[in-house]
Amino acid sequence: MTFLDGVYICIFASITAMSNSPEKIFSVSELNSAVRAVLLRSFGELWLSGEICNVTVKQDSGHVYLSLKDANAQVQAVFWRGSLQFRALQLQVGSQVEACGRVELYERGGSYQFNISKLQPLGLGELFQRFEALKERLRSEGLFDLARKKPLPALPRCIGLVTSLEGAAIKDFMQILHRRHPNIHLRIINSPVQGAGAAGWLAAALQYFSQSKACDVIVLTRGGGSMEDLWEFNEEVLARAIAASEVPVISAVGHERDYTISDEVADFRAPTPSAAAELVIKGQEELRERLFNAAKRLQSAAANRLGQARLRWQNAERSAFFQKPEHLTNLLSQRLDLAGIRLERVLRQVAGQTRQRLANANLRLPTQLRQQAALRRAKLERLQSALQAMNPKKVLARGYSIILDQNNQALLKAEQVAKGDKLKAILAEGELKLQVE
């Protein structure tokens, strides 16, 4: 017996047990709730593979409602808040996927559905994990930052195109470019755009254009395709070559729904090759219109400046200086004379005040000098008296003497000498040689 047979028996037994209760009448809600409990109890988390059909994405909630089918049946499913991941995986109707989730019963409608928790393209799970891991690593290094992206030149003299000459992208690009500006100079490097090793070719082409400065802007492009076809544009070697380019790079890979790591690193992303041609070069009519508008603005600005200059000249011409210049010179001469008179008067006044201050100072100076001399003489006498009072000669003059031993040390006690010691006595006038008996 298979697993599904066991689940069927379990559900059948549960419903039979409920129906065999004669005293219990179930409502529809109770029946659906009981069936939901049986489904949750019977099925755990499982993986389901199938083809996507009937997709509805709710923008406000982010939920994705879809159906999964195979050759014989289909089941309703919902991916809660999965719109961002659904778009990042580039899924659409017809995509083969593997979904992880649980079987649920939508009680209001009485139908069961598959609630998806994880979703990945069938056979591309490993590729997608590599894609997400590389994208997160490059983002952490700052390769996606807007601050490092270079602006496009307004009118490039030469465009560098990196693509395959056998693809449809170059035809679309050339058609738009010829229509908008047929005389633009174009340099093309033919490179494989899919398959193992294509990323290395593309990176080498970008390095050549960057190092040689052979163009003003680089367009990296190819047509649409599956995730495997576009995988070379998700390689690290190409992403780092784009980031290291000194020439602005436009990435136009696939269709509008296709998104690669090259688009994230490039300075600009164009949804299609045709859009890249429209982005890189302005049309002749647009350029002509811009030149015409610039000429009109320049002419208007020149006329405005000329009008302002003419108005200033007219105002100057009507001024008093040009009307009666002698009146203005006489007025200025009179002001100069009056200023000279006032200056002479002020100088005489300042000189008189200075002489008076000098005379007063001369009168006060002798008196102050005598006072200072008397004060200093009295201070000197006080210091001299104090010095004389501390002079040891004054003490010796009163009959005292100083006794020194053989080492010229003053004696304070008789015990410091012995019989026969030779001493020296210092008197107020002269010295004596002594010997102890």
Overview of the molecule:
- This protein is α/β, with parallel strands linked by helices.
- It folds into 5 domains: 1-42, no CATH class; 44-123, Beta Barrel (OB fold (Dihydrolipoamide Acetyltransferase, E2P)); 142-282, Rossmann fold; 319-390; 395-435, no CATH class.
- The chain contains 13 helices and 13 strands.
- The protein has a 5-stranded mixed barrel. Strands 7-6-8-9-10 form a 5-stranded parallel beta sheet, sandwiched between helices. The chain has a 3-stranded antiparallel beta sheet with strand order 11-12-13, with no helix packed on it.
- Helix 6 (198-212) packs parallel to helix 7.
- The model has no long low-confidence stretch (mean pLDDT 82).
Give the structure's gist in a few sentences.
With about 425 residues, the protein is an alpha/beta fold.
Residues in helix, %:
40-55%
What is the name of the CATH class of the largest domain? Alpha Beta
How much of the polypeptide forms β-strand, as a percent range? 15-25%
* CATH homologous group name of the largest domain: Response regulator
Whole-angstrom Rg: 55 Å
